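call fold(seq) -> C-alpha cells
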Amino acid sequence: SLEDVPAWVRPATEITTLSEVAPVVVHSDDLFGDSGLPALSLIGTSFSLRGNFVPFLSRHVGAPVANLAKDGGAFDGAAQAYFHSKEFSQEAPKLVLWEIPERMIQRP
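ret:
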C-alpha cells in the first residue's frame, strides 16, 4: 500500500472516464431460433471476463460474441474445455479468438 509513502514519491493520480458498451443483439425470426447463435467465440483467461471487453469487441465486429473465457484456467484451460465440449462439436463457430497473456508467449 502507498498510504504511508510521502506524496512526492507516489505516482500521479489518474482520472479516466467510465464507459460501458452494450453487446450487439441479433433478432431472428427463423423457425428454430438458431441463426442468432454467435459465429464468433472468445476463449481465454479471466482477463477476457473483465473490463467490458466482449461488448466492445461485439460492437466493433457488428456481431454477437460468445465469451467462453475461464477464471483460473491458465492460458489453455478455456481452450481445452471448449474444444472438448458438446457445444463445440455440435456447432463450431466460424471464428475463435484466443486471448493469450503476453507472459505465456515468452515461456520456453
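Residues 53-61 form the longest helix (9 residues).
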